[in-house]
Amino acid sequence: MPLLGNLLQYRKNKIGFLSALRDDGHQLTRFRLGKHSITLLKKPEDLVHVEHRNAKNYQKATMLRDLVGDGILMSEGEKWRKQRRLIQPRFHPSSVTALESLMNQRITGFLHRMESEVAGSEGRLEIGLHLKKLSFEIILQALFGEVDQGDFDELRKPMEFVNSFLTARFNELVPLPLWVPLPRYLRFQRAREAIDQVIHRYIDRKRKAILDQNPGTDLLTQMILSRDPDSGVAMDDLQIRDETVSILLAGFETTGNLLSWILVNLSREPAALMRVREEIDSSIGRRIPDANDVLGLAYFAKVVDETLRLQPSVWAWTKRAVGDDVLGNVKISKGQILFLSPYLVHRDPGIWDEPSRFNPDRWTEETKEKTKGAYFPFGMGPRTCVGKHFAVLEAKLILVRFLQHFEFRIGEEQLPEPDFQITLGFKRPLRAAVRARRSAS
Ligand code: HEM
Which domains does the chain show, CATH number per domain? Predict the structure, then answer.
């Protein structure tokens, strides 16, 4: 349509609309949302080209900048390289394994909370919320070395609003500047302020601890103490805020939703659940697992990979070409916006056998080889997710301990429906019937 382009179809049924474009037989397909012309990438070789081989020609092009400013999630060029160099070592597999006891402490608290909830609610509880809260605590602990009780309750609503606001902003007909006093824009400003208030509380506290000669070893303290290798200049509070919000945004809804989707898939496939339980019982039993224990569970690893195939927590993103390029023999002009979606490519019937079926056994070495470039839940190339080892270890530790302690059942009354926002969440709160297997102490 002249003014709207495909906006109405996209808003009405994003996935139906995009899947039809994916399957239209063309290498690339262009669509239009209001004034934005967007090109859908489908072929693994094009995805690898844009994300990896010629990544320097593409920049991030989402609305997230409205929230995270110039933090690592959205920055570009030399600035991004310096941020990545500072943050990446913290999330290297060897450093992440060292975070296992921190994660386990938080998980013990979660198991106790669950036990008392199960006793007080006849076993029906909002499992999605509990899992989100736990991954929020773990990412905050990794960032700040501590977590204030009440932070989750203070931040949950603003974060949820921001997620839906930024998603809707992507398909606004004419996105206006955020200073225009529309009620939704004002609500977004308030949500941002609420998030900033919590972050600045931690920044002030860390600065004081440094002045008192009592610095922590957390990432925030490291950021405050860091100096630019070229100029020797320290980061100001705004930059530290942008980095912190970036990591918080990238790291908590994503992992929280992954945990929930794994439970949904296992609940739908009792045979898979039984195999996971048997694997845990035979190799870990009842003791508290460490990182090596959970990373060594071969079948469970396939369950996680298969969930990230069917329900990749970051289901799509966009990139903008900074110069002309060629994909196959199609010209991509400078300024063109490209749409990349692991969700669509992970379910492409031209690439995967029975793509909609949850089948952890598909994850053989042969499949991994065959689907290179077609499986990218954490992105690919230089901008690949910094937190992927952290997220996978966290998810495995949490779910192994959850399964050691509880029986559960999801979706007896209503099947969980996906909600395609910035992260792939749920339309309604995810509830489960849960009962204890044994005491969490
Ligand atoms: C299941 C969990 C997660 C998924 C599926 C996920 C996925 C992604 C994806 C798809 C990207 C963008 C890749 C691109 O633009 O090409 C990304 C970037 C990023 N993620 Fe994650 N992520 C997860 C968890 C985490 C966690 C726990 C953290 C923090 C500890 C984190 C920190 C980041 C950061 C900082 C970036 C930006 C990296 C850069 O641009 O250099 N993520 N993630």
Answer: 70-308+352-436 (1.10.630.10)
